[in-house]
Write a structure and sequence with these properties.
With about 140 residues, the protein is an alpha+beta fold. Helix content is about 30%, strand content about 25%. Strands 5-4-1-2-3-6 form a 6-stranded mixed sheet, sandwiched between helices. The longest helix is centred in the first third of the chain and has 14 residues.
């Protein structure tokens, strides 16, 4: 059976997530906000007693997510994707703008989504690198 473009891109996203061989693919959650020419992905790994944030490859993963967003048919476009890997399979949920509370802060929303998949565990972020700081 021939896959459609959306299926191909969802498979590609799974392959890109699997390239992080430092941690298992099982228990990986990708949450991304996507709109025209803009993508904000976050990757989380369920490591049992805590959740580990992993830095996404914005070039490759960002391009795949934008391609997926542009591959949508029709006028209605999703605004977020939740892509979870468990039991050796992936499940993708598309969230549309009207399903997002405009009063909820994006980081609070992301934390709530991670907790929905993995429970109320601490999220461990990498240390802030000096070159990541912003100059005002």
């Amino acid at each position: 059976m021939k896959k459609n473009r959306t299926e191909e891109l969802l498979d590609l996203i799974g392959q890109l997530l699997a390239e992080d061989t430092e941690y298992p693919l099982e228990g990986t959650l990708l949450h991304a906000e996507v709109e025209r020419a803009s993508v904000g992905p976050s990757i989380f790994k369920n490591l049992g007693n805590h959740i580990l944030y992993r830095d996404p490859d914005l070039d490759r993963l960002g391009d795949a997510l934008l391609d997926l967003w542009y591959a949508q048919e029709g006028e209605k476009r999703w605004a977020e994707i939740e892509y979870i890997v468990r039991n050796g399979r992936f499940e993708a949920t598309f969230v549309y703008p009207e399903e997002i509370d405009p009063d909820e802060e994006p980081l609070d929303r992301r934390t709530r989504i991670v907790a929905r998949y993995f429970g109320d565990k601490p999220i461990v972020y990498p240390p802030w690198e000096e070159h990541d700081s912003f100059q005002l």
